[in-house]
Amino acid sequence: MWRDAVLVAGKDLRIEARSRVATNQVLPFAFLVLILFAFALDTDQRALTRAAAGLYWVAVLFSTLLAIQRSAAIESADGARDQLRLSGLDPAGVFLGKVAAVAVQLVALEVLLGAGVVVLYNASIRGVGLVVLTCAAATVGLAAAGTMYGALAAGLKVRETLLPLLLLPVAAPVLLAATKAWQAALDGVPADGAPWLRLLATFAVIYLTLGVLLFGSLLEES
Fold first, then answer.
1. Are the beta carbons of 210 and 93 closer than 8 angstroms?
2. Which of its termini does the chain have fewer beta carbons within 10 Å around, N or C?
């Protein structure tokens, strides 16, 4: 399973490195969202700083949708999904590999967006440890949930519009918990973010477990 996960993750990351979709589309989109928020609240700098955590995670969530759609599109082109079914790879390994590839892209995006939040929103990150753990747990949870629902919607003609409808309600707890944990880090009271961090970790474990158990069936039916 782990060998297959490494193979799939490497394949997806090589495709992204050659196509540069994440660099040319997802990253500019994420920064544009941050800039638009900054323009919308520019008259009240204190409100912008207070809302920095929520605006950051909204930008990450929107970017996650693009990354997941791209990940699903990789397997939809030229009958790649059928070839994946016939390859003999462990479905759990395929799932973990695709989650890892999406997570790597999201981590790079989150680092750059974090710098953007500090510059544009005048935010000061005090609880660095809490920020890192929050990003790790939220990234894994979003990547796992997105990969599952991406596979569920992949075989449908309306997958581009169906995926947000499926994923956004599920991702709402991640958005809330990550925002609360980040706000605690920005306020310099990491202890207040601990319960939200546990919620994020629980979400990530649940969706990783469901994906490992169910991804084979989703792959066959999509």
1. no
2. N
Determine the straight-line distance between the first and last CA of the chain, rounded to whole angstroms.
21
pLDDT digits (tens, 9 = 90+) for 148-169: 888 777 766 666 677 788 888 8
Place of tokens 């479905």: 91
CB count in 10 Å sphere of residue 162: 15
- Sequence spans of domains, the chain: 2-221
Per the structure block, which two tokens stand in for 35? 């800039």
| pLDDT tens readout for residues 175-206 | 999 999 988 888 888 888 899 999 999 999 99
Distance CA 167, CA 146 (A): 6
H-type helices in 41-158, by residue range?
Answer: 45-50, 52-76, 80-86, 91-121, 128-153
| Nearest of 197, 179, 181, 199 to residue 189 by alpha carbon | 181
Which residue bears the tokens 């919308």? 40
- If one counts every other C-beta atom within 10 angstroms of the C-beta of residue 36, the result is 12
Between CA 212 and CA 93 the distance in angstroms is 8
Distance (Å, whole) CA 7 – CA 4: 5
**How far is residue 98's CA from residue 120's CA, in Å, rounded to a whole number?**
32
> What's the CA gap between 173 and 27, in Å, rounded?
24
